[in-house]
């Protein structure tokens, strides 16, 4: 039986940081060219993945997306846990893609008991876990094939499960005269139409089994023998940055002394004293770990309501070390990384509101846009109505009109967004302006406070999101080549406006000249916007109740798939339905639409536990359960399914923080579901609402 994280003595967590950088020299897969085709792609995507401590190998598959048929598999790269463990500082390099052999794509373990009983060889197959998903439904239909001495037995097929349970026995007549005295236990995915898919196997040497008579346990499934590849070295390469870390997470009380020291360091600064601890962290943090340190510190101080004060300390430390105003906050210092993380945590909804409409319009219109004469493709800009090819000048003129339209719409959205900007962001930006003005009070530096704000808001927030909308969750997929170029040029224009200097851009990239009037006008608009953004008298003017990360007291919201059951009743075949979920300080509500008048509620004061659900319960690793009790101690459960592990962790964190002061929390709970006549986690048949079973 697992315990809620707040009551666990210690939790071991294996975390893998992944940055998929780029690929090169990939083979041609498409028969016809497409506008997004590239053989040297750049992704730049980052993930933090929590892995089971028992994992063995990590594989990355590169696919060629096809809209009309199944995606083509180009190749894969694999790296073992042992290799990652020998590189504590992380791995960063190119790895050659190898051919994907279906018989090598195995994972998971099988629970077996092999025994010898009076010239009989007996194999008892209990269950398997974490099998590969071979079918389109996201699961497999596994069965076991046991081979010995030319004879074969097969188990029943368990439909749609990566965690099958067979509990079947197979017997063979023992033949000690065999030279190859081997028992083979294979797991296969049954298919009605096509051939069965191989899921892995375990081999046993029966001669060695004689000494112990019986062997039982979980055995890792191994791939079949690898075959030689005709494409060896011809499938291109993939650049990866990986860092594996095993962590032991203790109860929160163990971290309280450090937390108190950090909060005290911020409070010391408020009293006019030097924040020695934060100075030490600032001076000793390495470039490689600075982003991670900044992100964790921002989250910690946000949780304690001291984010603004923490950033103020870093602003002062950075300004003390800066003598040139034109280099202010341009390096990857702890202050810059912390402010960048703060914007991503506290301002993501604001970013979506400001950039979303324009970015979506660029994706939908797919206009050909190019200002650089050396990159203009005349054939892409044909005028079929006039039966002629456009000139280079005409292409640039038309591109300028498109970009001016996008830029005008975006600037209008920014200028009108003052009231939608989270108060916490506005307070941080005003604080930044005040510190910069104190450091550079001379008249010739009157523009520096605006540049300090735009260096974060435009150069580190708006522009990166425009260039890579998927990384900021503005779009589900990366743009094609044409859309990507349009977004890049639009981001360059926003950067130019953020620099508040049109002359520098004109000398560096003179082909951006046609946009200079729009950029010059944008600079004036941006200055006026910043003036309004930081203009308020005090907290009361912003509204004390609005000083949360999201407006109107909303802590988190979004569409999730939900299923509610009372007393762990039997689950339906497809129990999840899409709802808009809103988390506020005291309740969790969900309805069909964001503006629906009919909503259901869960009082957070009555929540007993908020935890993940085992993957085998629903065939998804992104499900969590909220357990609460209504009248007469009746237990109710709400299951929430998220789209990704990052979204799941965000909801878990937000809910746990909201319920941190609840007193009637559970000491134990079932991590599975009561389905059919038994629990999926422990296979016990007794259904109880107390959750005090020891599993």
Automatic annotation (TrEMBL):
SMART domains given in the database record: C2, PH, RasGAP
A family per Pfam: BTK
PH domain ranges (all copies): 553-660
Residues annotated as domain Ras-GAP: 289-499
Gene Ontology MF: a single term: GTPase activator activity
Domain of life: Eukaryota
Keyword Metal-binding: yes
Protein name (record): Ras GTPase-activating protein 4
Lineage: Eukaryota, Metazoa, Chordata, Craniata, Vertebrata
Swiss-Prot/TrEMBL keywords: GTPase activation, Metal-binding, Repeat, Zinc, Zinc-finger
InterPro entries in alphabetical order: C2_dom, C2_domain_sf, PH-like_dom_sf, PH_domain, Ras_GTPase, RasGAP_CS, RasGAP_dom, Rho_GTPase_activation_prot
GO BP term (any one): intracellular signal transduction
Keyword Repeat: yes
Gene3D superfamilies reported for this sequence: C2 domain, GTPase Activation - p120gap, domain 1, Pleckstrin-homology domain (PH domain)/Phosphotyrosine-binding domain (PTB)
Residue stretches making up the C2 domain: 1-95, 102-219
